[in-house]
Amino acid sequence: MLELAGVSKHYGAVEALSGVDLVVPAGQTVALIGPSGCGKSTLLRVLSGLVMPDSGRVRLDGQEVTPASAPALRRRLGFVVQGGGLFPHLTARGNVALMPRYLGWTPERVAARLEALVQLTRFPPDGLERYPVQLSGGQRQRVALMRALMLEPDVLLLDEPLGALDPMTRAELQEDLREVFQRLGKTVVLVTHDLAEAAFFSTRLVLLREGRVVQVGSLNELVEKPVDDFVTRFVRAHRTVPVALAMGGA
Amino acid sequence: MGPRGRGVCAPRRGRDVRSLSSLLLLCGLALLAACARDTRPLVVVGSKKFTESVVLGELLTQLAQESGASAVHRAELGGSRILFDALQAGQVDLYPEYTGTLREELLAGEGVRTPAELAAALARRGLRMSAPLGFNNTYAIGVRRETAERLGLRTLTDLARHPELRLGFSNEFMARADGWPALRRRYGLSHADVRGLDHDLAYRGLESGGLDATDLYSTDAEVRRYDLVVLEDDLKHFPDYQAVVLFRADLAARAPAVVAALSRLDGRISEREMVEMNARARLEHEPPGRVAADFLASELGFRAEVREEGWGARVLRATREHLALVGVSLGAAIVVAIPLGVLAARRRRVGQVVLAAVGLVQTVPSLALLVFMIPLLGIGTWPAVVALFLYALLPIVRATHAGLTGLPADVREAAEALGLPPGARLRLVELPMASGAILSGIKTSAVITVGTATLGALIGAGGYGQPILTGIRLADVGLILEGAVPAAVLALAAQGVFELAERWLVPRGLRLGGAER
User: Fold this and answer.
1) Of B208, B248, B265, B443, which has the fewest beta carbons less than 10 angstroms from its beta carbon?
2) CA torsion B405→B411→B417→B420, rounded to 10°?
3) Structural domain of B205
């Protein structure tokens, strides 16, 4: 279980987060959404202990995240950073196996875990010996996901995991990712700026604006019972493609 | 690779570390070799970087050897100040000097007038001076023999009686306070046709008959080359530049026979003889050792053994010396600069100080840096190595700093998010990713060091600079090329070696199709 209580964070004069309270029960998938600069990425960094809040508390399964506890706790969190953050000097295998090797896993254990992840993420096994530049965008995201899952973390944090992909790859990866979340049953916090994507992954959306939580609820609740005008405008901004019209015109 | 395939990254990292350590080992061996080569000489003779000084240095070396010492000649060590400092520091035991240089330059401001005062000023520094060797290498006025004989010119007073003569002086002589303006007043010279021009042009003017007289040093090889008569300074206008031997007072205790042998040279070298020796060495390119040996044989009647190095041996020795200079200084620079670059990238405040400090070193002219090293480390290989080391730092520190700070933010964040501690992040992610940048910094340093090391010869470090220096002294293009061409080849080779190292050290993933993002 993840808990945030009264978390605030400033960068100079900018208030990235102010008084955020949020609880993510174990096994739940939560999507953080909101416009650019609303603080959703900062919230993810605070959750992972990469950024320490100015005030407030962050707890992972009841244990407080502090500068001292963060490095150890981080190994119980899988983090897919924005853009993937693959190490270009290592092959896909090298990327995924970096951390277990550092921790002294036996080669057999590493190989077995990799085998399972390749199947789970539907990554082509022959791609393991390739370097990131030799992989497609979708494959790179799968490697980033495998790397985040390698140590079997309790919590998975993803920052815009599908950001830079073309629509077809994105749709395919969305399906696979949702299946992974469902199969693993882990606690997942995912950042996206796309409302439809957020609703696709989760029934619990957290809408942020200027560092504050505006509304928490399902897509329906955001549409039917918006707490203020901003929510309405945010929802309306995500126009759906008028499919019938587009197909008729083709 | 099968499922039981062994790690890709761990052995690769191991290989990187091993290759780096073997590089360091190599540098260490080169260092030891450089040490072992320096056998302890009993008496070290020095000389300045002009022909007369080198010939006299050879003469003193052979004389010391004849007196039973094991003598070494450190030839062409830059200028007076370098030698005077080296003598006081005990890096050199004796060298030829001029009384005028001591009075006007080295001991300027101490008001040294009489020979007794000069001896006292030297004694305070633990130095002594021999009796004059016999010739006075001072400013003089030379005229063509034909003109001198026709007009019966022997002294400068005679010159004053012939105001129709055309005079051409070097620009420096025209401008110096004790040059033309003072000379003119002293002798009442009323010549109308006086011009300032380049020294070489003045000699050509004399040769073609366009000029009748010019300034020169009284023992210049040109005196013989153009068959000039040096007019006697009968009113003693020009300061005395009597050639003497300066030596350390403690030499009398360490090698009394050598000090005693110096007296055999008292007044033995006339101006005519010195001109002759200069001309043989400078114009006919005879080895200074042979010129000195011939003089000793005819004047003092002993046969000194002259060892002459062949062309191949000379280039080989210069190569060995140059490689040692570059290898040791560059190796040490790599070992120090990479951690400094890491520090600079990790701590911004400290980083700015480090970058400013290594940048500051770079602004010191290389020659000045070499000279600064003499009071600290003396002359020879070590001060040159330290100076080259300091020069080699900047490109590597800066490349390491730039390589590390320029890493994509998501990659750095990913490494931290994985839970790797800072040391492991540096070793497993950041340094391998910055390796290309770091290597290019090392490559730049290597090329600069190979070039700058040629200046090491000025303080006795040898290397390719030695033939270049001698070549400049003798205006011998062949000799200059003997140093310049191998230096250029070595610079290219160094670049090639580091380009190969790049294939070996920079991870393959970084070399495929450039940057990922």
Assistant:
1) B208
2) -70
3) 139-231
Is residue B165 domain-shared with residue B266, that is, in the same domain? no
- Mutant choice from A48, A89, A109 vs B, greatest count of B C-beta within 10 A: A89
A86 to B411: CB separation less than 8 angstroms, yes or no: yes
How many separate domains does chain B show? 3
Residues of A in contact with B418 (CB under 8 A): 74-75, 79, 98-99, 147
- For residues B350 and B383, state if they share a domain: yes
| B428 to A98: CB separation less than 8 angstroms, yes or no | yes
- Which residue among A81, A88, A99 places its CB closest to the CB of B510? A88
**The pair of three-digit structure tokens given for residue B142, joined into one six-digit string:** 């030379």
Place of tokens 């007076």: B80
State the residue range of the domain holding A209.
7-87+153-246
B27-36: average pLDDT: 51
Share the mean pLDDT of chain B.
85
Half-sphere exposure (CA, 13 Å, Cβ side) for A53? 26
Distance from CA of B356 to the nearest CA of A (A): 28
Q: Do residues B169 and B214 lie in contact, with contact meaning Cβ atoms separated by under 8 Å?
A: yes
- What are the tokens at B228? 């000039």
Alpha carbons B219 and B275: distance in angstroms, whole number: 5
| Residues A38, A5 contacting (CB under 8 angstroms) | no
- Look at A90 and B418 and tell me if their CB atoms are within 8 Å: no
Q: Which of A50, A86, A94 sits opposite B413 (nearest CB)?
A: A50
Residue A131, in any domain of the structure: no
Which residues on neighbouring strands pair with residue A206, listed in sequence order? A32, A216
| Same domain (yes/no): B129, B145 | no
Question: Residue A205 is part of a domain; what is its CATH number?
Answer: 3.40.50.300
Q: Which residues of B touch A85 (CB under 8 A)?
A: 408, 410-411, 413-415, 417
Which positions in chain B touch A131 (Cβ < 8 Å)?
508-509, 512
Between chain A and chain B, how many beta carbons pairs sit less than 8 Å apart? 112
State which H helix or E strand residue B440 sits in.
Answer: helix B431-452
Tell me if chain B has a CB within 8 Å of the CB of A139.
no
Residue A216: burial class (beta carbons within 10 Å; 0-12, 13-18, 19+): middle
CB contact under 8 A, B3 and A132: no
Output the pTM of the full model. 0.71
Interface check for B109 against chain A (CB to CB < 8 A): the answer is: no
Tokens representing residue B343 in the block: 């520090």
Please tell me if residue A164 touches chain B, with a CB cutoff of 8 Å. Answer: no
Does the residue B236 lie in any domain?
Answer: no
- B264 and B356 in one domain? no
In a domain, A74, yes or no: yes
CB count within 10 Å of CB B512 equals 14
- CATH number of the domain enclosing B219: 3.40.190.120
B63 in Cβ contact with B264 (< 8 Å): yes
Helices marked H in B50-126 — which ranges? 51-66, 80-89, 99-101, 115-123
Say yes or no: B423 contacts chain A, CB-CB below 8 A.
no
Residue A239 pLDDT greater than 80, yes or no: no
**Number of domain units in chain A:** 1
Residue B27 confidence class, pLDDT cut points 50, 70, 90:
low
For B172, phi then psi, to 5°, come to -65, -45
Q: Report the gap between the CA of B478 and the closest CA in chain A (Å).
A: 49
Q: Is A52 part of the contact surface with chain B (CB cutoff 8 Å)?
A: no
Q: Does the pLDDT value for residue B514 go beyond 80?
A: no
Does B422 reach chain A within 8 Å, measured CB to CB?
no
What is the length of chain A? 250
CATH of the domain at B356: 1.10.3720.10
